[in-house]
Amino acid sequence: xxxxxxxxxxxxxxxxxxxxxxxxxxxxxxxxxxxxxxxxxxxxxxxxxxxxxxxxxxxxxxxxxxxxxxxxxxxxxxxxxxxxxxxxxxxxxxxxxxxxxxxxxxxxxxxxxxxxxxxxxxxxxxxxxxxxxxxxxxxxxxxxxxxxxxxxxxxxxxxxxxxxxxxxxxxxxxxxxxxxxxxxxxxxxxxxxxxxxxxxxxxxxxxxxxxxxxxxxxxxxxxxxxxxxxxxxxxxxxxxxxxxxxxxxxxxxxxxxxxxxxxxxxxxxxxxxxxxxxxxxxxxxxxxxxxxxxxxxxxxxxxxxxxxxxxxxxxxxxxxxxxxxxxxxxxxxxxxxxxxxxxxxxxxxxxxxxxxxxxxxxxxxxxxxxxx
Length: 372
Description:
Blueprint: H1 2-25, E1 34-40, E2 43-50, E3 54-57, H2 58-68, H3 81-104, E4 113-115, E5 120-122, E6 130-133, H4 138-151, E7 187-190, E8 195-196, E9 202-204, E10 211-212, E11 215-221, E12 237-244, E13 247-248, H5 261-265, E14 271-279, E15 290-295, E16 298-304, H6 312-320, E17 330-332, E18 354-359, E19 363-371
Parallel strand pairs: 6-17, 8-14, 9-19
Antiparallel strand pairs: 1-2, 1-5, 2-3, 3-4, 6-7, 10-13, 11-12, 11-17, 12-14, 15-16, 15-18, 18-19
């Protein structure tokens, strides 16, 4: 019996070793990773995040790999995340997998592996284009409309009467299928100048007191996209990240034009993004992820990406029928319920607060709130 156990143990060890060798030779990572942009003593670099605690300097790791393997192809490692994304499926994916496997298989971390706590986390990417969905969670939309009715002293009425006509298609942009009673997708532009990273302060503009939060799930575009079909939309997604779509809910002051999206969405610091990008192969089902937001430790939003009205593929299709999308651009999928816009007793963000957005599989993004 003792001899049998020894044989079985040796066999298991052999199988494990073979699997590890297979993983390295087949270009399969031994563990999932995330990608981010980091700063160390003023030096900015692309990092590979393991277990939310270690960061591999991609360029330094690649240099060490090529030095120890002279016959390996020489690669120039980008210092910009958009180029990493654009080259990922070409020559960088296998190299990233190899580096991750090398580090995961060592007991002592090489010099090019840093503790996350020793680094400054920057926005993972600086998008050229940011598109944000409006009203993509019915509970949020209905809650906001009902609060407006309450504020006017009106009786709550159904948002869509039974005899209301069905929404129409948008010619050449959004062709609705028969029986689809959803409203059309809605996207608006958010300024790249509003982007900040994990740990950076959301700055409350002087004189603006109704500053709200919205924890949102973002897709990151992986390759040029124009007129993408729904069937092929997944091919254009590189990965996923988090955005806090900070919103100024106060009015314009003149009573004209309704909602002002420039004022409402585009103050500096109003687009915290990050903390990392998760390549799509490491998220089994992006449409089944819990998303939460806490304000000073109190849960204010708690929902799931499954509750979107239009899923990530439909939103990418819709956006690409309007404008060209490029690697590193992001589309934010809208806010779940729980914002102050829906509350009769709103608790707006103010200096001294701390807001945390968390999405399952991606991580948590923490931002303090301060005065401008």
